[in-house]
Amino acid sequence: MYKETLSKDLAKFDRIGAATLEHARPVTKLGLGLLFLLIVWVGVTIANPDGEQRIVVIIAGIIGGYMALNIGANDVANNVGAAVGSRALTMVGALIIASIFEAMGAIVAGGDVVSTISKGIIAPSDFPNSDMFIWCMLSALLAAALWVNIATMLNAPVSTTHAIVGGVIGAGIAAVGFSVVNWPTMGLIAASWVISPLLGGVIAAVFLAFIKANIIYRDDKIAGAKRWVPVLVALMAGVFSAYLVMKGLKRVWRPDPWMIAAIGVAIFALAYAIINPLVRRQAEGMENRNKSVRSLFTIPLICSAALLSFAHGSNDVANAVGPLAAIVGAAETGHVAAKVEIPLWVMFIGAAGISAGLLLFGPKLIRTVGQQITRMNPMRAYCVALSAAITVIIASALGLPVSSTHIAVGAVFGVGFFREWHTARRTHINHGRYDGAGKPTGGEDQVARAQRRKLVRRSHLLSIAAAWVITVPASAALAGTIFWILQTVRSF
Can you give the pTM of this predicted structure? Predict the structure, then answer.
């Protein structure tokens, strides 16, 4: 009796302890986030020991770090969500891969996009002085960070690119007027918001169709996998190496386009020579089943997740440090320059902040993106990741600040809608009976069930689209309000 009562009491203490730890975890994460911002404060102070605008630069650095944390918490979920949802990667493995390659992409290849976000959306020459421009960028950065933070708390995967662009527009209009906005550039950016999810969805669907036709629906699935999985991995390696040479090494080496293409082809051949025997050995003795084939996609899925994280870091670091770079440039020179140099410490804030935000706050939205839109397996997740990576790399090479959220989520929806269409089509072929006029005469019930089967949750489509629509005006209104408040306070 005594032992039984003691065991029950100990079990209660265990449950209380577990509940306490579960409730304390958000507080611990918040504390670590504040510690990161404190480190940013110290680092920016050391990097800027003097100057008339020193205090403003320090404040901007802290807000830039805050924005980078939010990007890691919200936007990076789109890079690895599909991989985690397919169970090809564990949450811990995905966090490690994404944090490393996000930082690499930001440091190695993020410069061009930062230039676009800092001076391409508004016309700096229209500002009467550098002081107004600095406060405009500061308001935009703070507004975007606050909006993304709110969205993350609401578990909504919004576009951080939308948030910062809306913030820059709202603060610019509040400071100078509608004429300050570079509307042709905004038109290109707005067009990319429509094109990028469509392109991401189409590319993902094409890859999935190719895999189904050449591997899944073959009589000998293992033979198809042995032939094409090495090709897919080598293709990814070639694209990655060509991009790295084109963007990451441009400060020390500027090869001609033919040289970049030659390097990509050479890496493709080398990767194929290495991966091909590995895949063949792994496939030996496997059962001729889809489940067996899926295991062969673990390696390319890991590689594609790393590639997507690198591309995202190079592209979306601009959302955190673009306005910060503009503020630093204006504070150091005393005027608004047409082109600003990006200090290395600015890039490090963006890179470290994105990785820290991902590790601390990213898992929640990773599960949302990977599990709640459509069902994932390694092959579908690979198509999503590779499609998103290719689209983001193209945009980054052009210096165009597209939304990686739109691209990745568009790829997820593309895979889901392709599966719906393909399932209905195969059901028509396998069960439909048609007369001479082409009208169905049998198997109508199975065909109708296939047509009614929805493999994509429409509620998520509507909610995500609504979040995308509201982000720009909300962040613009918030930025304009913040700028007005700051100007009012400064006038006293």
Answer: 0.79
